Amino acid sequence: MRSGAGKPLTRIGVLALQGDFHEHIQVLESLEVATSEVRLPTHLEGLDGLIIPGGESTTIVKLGDLYGFREAIRAELDRGMALWGTCAGMIVIANELTDDRPTPFGYVDMKVSRNWFGRQVDSFEQDIAIDGIDGDPYHCVFIRAPAVARLGNSVEVLATVDGDTPIAVRSGKILATAFHPELTDDTRVHEMFVNLARNGN
To answer: Are the beta carbons of 36 and 43 closer than 8 angstroms?
Structure first.
């Protein structure tokens, strides 16, 4: 299937094992992007990008391993698929955590700390400038949010909070954000990911 100007249709899947996958799908549909719920590894076939949403990281990892997603996603990344982890998704795709559990999927050379900013009651919202996002600062929603405690040399920081704490990073075609863009009316981060999946930049 192809869309406008003869370009192949961009397809973005959202991992639908647990968490707020439906909200991501709503945003993608508002952008008129072809999207689908990914519940089995076979659903990864033909995707240009995959979003691992916020939720409960231990549950996502446990179910992901039960269904064989760890290896299946890695194979698709090797093929060239783009990947975006939001909040719990950032935890899932890291290669190391400050906690002993869960064992993350290990796609990005970074160490992530769960609940960096505190418990549910410590959730907050803040306007933050993000590299690659034009216009006004982005209104970021943090809910029991993680943060990056260590970065590998291949990982680029796109945004920080409290001066130097990374909360948005990119490594090649992989994006990770500690906040929840799907819970705002601002579609710019989703648009950035769609462009990454479509064009590689």
So the answer is: yes
